[in-house]
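Deliverable D5.2: sample structural annotation.
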Amino acid sequence: MTYSSDFLQRLETRGFIHQITDPGALDAAASKGPITAYVGFDCTAPSLHIGNLVSIMMLRHLQQAGHRPIVVMGGGTTKIGDPSGKDEARQLLTDDQIRANMASIRRIFERFLTFGDGPTDAIMVNNDEWLSQLQYIPFLRDVGRHFSINRMLSFDSVKLRLDREQPLSFLEFNYMIFQAYDYLELNRRYGCTLQMGGSDQWGNIVNGTDLIRRIDARDAFGLTTPLITRADGAKMGKTAKGAVWLHEDQLPHFDYWQFWRNTHDADVGKFLRLFTDLPLDEIARLEALPGAEINTAKAVLATEATALCRGREAAAAAAATAQTTFAEGGAGEELPQFAVGAPVTIVDALIGLGFAASKNEARKLVAQGGARIDGEAAGNDGVLVNPGQKVSAGKKRHGMIVSM
């Protein structure tokens, strides 16, 4: 479909759109004037991860196109847990843990969005403000009666869990009702007419648009993004070391930069469109670079994506460290560090730097010749590493042993 609104044109040409509840009507609304849209984020950890980045970038494009974004922090829904894509219930957090996570996560959004009181300034709200005030019986009568159990059981977030014979608690089963109610509340309070999210949220989003239509007889829209996968078929953001966190407290700047630098050749163009602000013509030039020159495009991707999430200064420092480490054979200041009070074995060094999850894994790496000290292969797993030496695991992971 060809869109007339700047907002949907942006999303379409950059690869963000998977499904829209009523594309023509949403396009017309976005063409007439500012609309208000939201994405919800639960507060299960002190940081969001790279799997959340597509939704964050959609909010950024929304604001750049002259519309108002709402970031909904799930202070209430985090107490329940979204069953979408999960095999088991989430660990329930205390109110203090949720508040601390929320405060930490806010700093991430302040780098992507402009917050304020203007008509297109972003706002952040906590759904605990209204969810914790609900009374059970009135909520069931006013809202619950609009939900069909038969339909709820057909949604992937529930159906896949049951098909795998994984337990689904009544608490989690209520999640989609509360998410739909979030949309109703945001529509009433802020005139929000669009909810966005990943493809796994389609059922929850449609529930919200239906609830608004049934109770208040108003139109509302939903938009989802495709599942982002890498060229090798793996889910975006999944690595051997675990989640790729957006917050620097959970993942150093250099590691974040290096994640993007390690992108598959075939993914460079797609990721430049999704995760940077670079113009499309420049992206087309970069993804067309032949042979080994594609590494230039990967470095641009790493620097631009890191600049958005961590700041331009952090991106430049990480790029400089990579140049020193890889091109010049040195040891950049931004490399991961493991502080020790005395020399340690290569096995302990690999674990301390996060390059191996266990001693067996570290010993295997040494035995296969993948562990190096200052560029020289570690002869055996008992060799000692001193403060000031660089430890490498394979060709792409490097760290420094430093003194306490």
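Annotation notes: Residues 85-89 have pLDDT under 50 and may be disordered. Residues 95-112 form the longest helix (18 residues).
The annotation will be released with the project's public dataset once the embargo ends.
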